[in-house]
Structure to design on (268 residues):
DNA sequence: CTCTATGTTTAATT
DNA sequence: GAATTAAACATAGA
């Protein structure tokens, strides 16, 4: 469940479930997800400490505890946090469980992740993956100027740059695909061929999609215009949507109404 | 059986 | 050495 809007929803859930609670027990034996991998380290760092705050940058969650301890959580491709009764059975694909107590009320949260691309990192200082993250569109805001400053001087395509977490934090394949369609820009365009108007269009499209996804995800389903719809007609112009591969990730786009920047004008 | 998948890291290649 | 590309991870679903 991962891209900025999904992670933001997870943050709000965890904040609601955990803030002010004391961690009564912490259990995980998953050596793929856990860092450090020793279950005893996970337990001893977390147990007995209260949850101060749950924050997010990009796709990373940071659960801040007493004494400077923090639990970083990345959801990978299929990770999610769920709240359950203390005596509820183990979830399918459950990888970690925290038992909580708040005002004498007991509860539990579980980390589920079928593919186990996610991470749970219990540490006493911020990890480098967190420190090097780029601008977060939701937390820091994003406009034409800040986007242009972030992507300036890159040689890769705009699609790949948008997904670089150290450039912009939280943009994944879906949002990048959708935003470039919304901005009418061909995903193969190079960043240094983009005008200030282009940067403005992309920044606005990103903010629109992120806001809409958070709003919709909080309740129902989400709706994508082009992602996963290759071969179907473009919702804007009706041409058949194409699928290409960039940096091993599929990109769906409309070759008719998304303009490829930096290409020589078509000869007549 | 084959292909694809919301993400990131690491190895291989240019 | 920098940059780009492919592979790897682990599992599910079409």
């Amino acid at each position: 469940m991962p891209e900025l809007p999904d992670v933001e929803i997870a943050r709000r859930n965890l904040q609601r479930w955990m803030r002010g609670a004391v961690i009564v027990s912490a259990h995980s034996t998953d050596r793929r997800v856990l860092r450090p991998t020793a279950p005893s380290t996970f337990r001893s760092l977390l147990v007995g400490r209260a949850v101060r705050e749950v924050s997010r940058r990009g796709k990373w969650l940071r659960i801040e505890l007493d004494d400077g301890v923090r639990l970083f959580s990345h959801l990978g491709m299929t990770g999610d946090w769920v709240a359950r009764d203390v005596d509820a059975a183990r979830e399918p694909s459950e990888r970690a469980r925290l038992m909580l107590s708040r005002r004498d009320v007991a509860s539990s949260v579980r980390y589920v992740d079928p593919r186990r691309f996610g991470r749970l990192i219990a540490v006493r200082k911020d990890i480098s993956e967190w420190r090097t993250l780029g601008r977060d569109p939701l937390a820091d805001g994003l406009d034409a100027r800040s986007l242009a400053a972030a992507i300036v001087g890159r040689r890769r395509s705009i699609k790949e740059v948008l997904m670089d977490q150290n450039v912009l934090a939280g943009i994944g394949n879906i949002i990048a695909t959708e935003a470039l369609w919304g901005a009418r820009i061909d995903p193969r365009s190079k960043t240094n061929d983009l005008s200030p108007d282009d940067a403005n269009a992309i920044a606005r499209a990103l903010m629109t999609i992120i806001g809409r996804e958070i709003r919709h995800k909080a309740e129902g389903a989400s709706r994508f215009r082009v992602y996963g719809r290759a071969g179907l007609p473009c919702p804007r112009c009706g041409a058949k949507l194409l699928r290409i591969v960039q940096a091993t990730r599929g990109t769906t786009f409309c070759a008719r109404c998304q303009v490829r920047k930096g290409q020589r004008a078509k000869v007549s």
